[in-house]
């Protein structure tokens, strides 16, 4: 069983923001594979289903970004999921918009959501897919850049390409493993 987590903030308030690329990716997967995100437990909204003949849990923590790890560790313990079957998708300013990067392990960088995940699961060894959002024009505008609404249709389209690529990368990881996915998407 795979646990596929998108990082983000509650959508009623933060839909259509750069910080919700993880949620957007989960929503696309759920739509493609007809997985209903209709359960509310583990401080999250989630659903279970099948992707490429593998059972999956699609999870959107509702703790707000900086506490995402609290939700993830509850699911890992409850379902006894090994870290080799954990995939976390999140936004990254160091990756160009529309692009993604897949890694098998690594630190959190400046991403507070990933800091929470690593701290709670006590490991840096799990698959992560970073969806590029680029950097703001002015360095001191980072917070507004990630949680502010995306107003440009052009920006929205580019970011959607990134989440679409992230969705395809997740499917490839499930089908053929993270190394094959890294070769194909990085």
Please give a handful of descriptors for the protein shown.
186 residues, alpha/beta, 7-stranded mixed β-sheet
How are the SSEs ordered, and which strands pair?
Blueprint: E1 2-6, H1 11-14, H2 21-32, E2 39-41, E3 44-51, E4 54-61, H3 68-79, E5 86-92, E6 100-103, H4 112-121, E7 127-132, H5 142-147, H6 153-176, H7 178-185
Parallel strand pairs: 1-4, 1-5, 5-7
Antiparallel strand pairs: 2-3, 3-4, 6-7
Characterize the structure shown.
By secondary structure, the protein is α/β, with parallel strands linked by helices. Helix content is 41%, strand content 22%. The chain has a seven-stranded mixed beta sheet with strand order 2-3-4-1-5-7-6, sandwiched between helices. Helix 2 (21-32) packs across helix 6, helix 3 (68-79) runs parallel beside helix 4 and helix 6 packs antiparallel against helix 7 (178-185). It starts with a strand and ends with a helix.
Proportion of beta-strand residues = 15-25%
Number of strands: 7
What is the general shape?
A: globular
Low-confidence stretches: none
Structural class: alpha/beta
> How are strands sequenced across the largest beta sheet?
2-3-4-1-5-7-6
User: Total number of helical segments?
Assistant: 7
> For the CA atoms, what is the radius of gyration?
15 Å
Mean pLDDT: 96
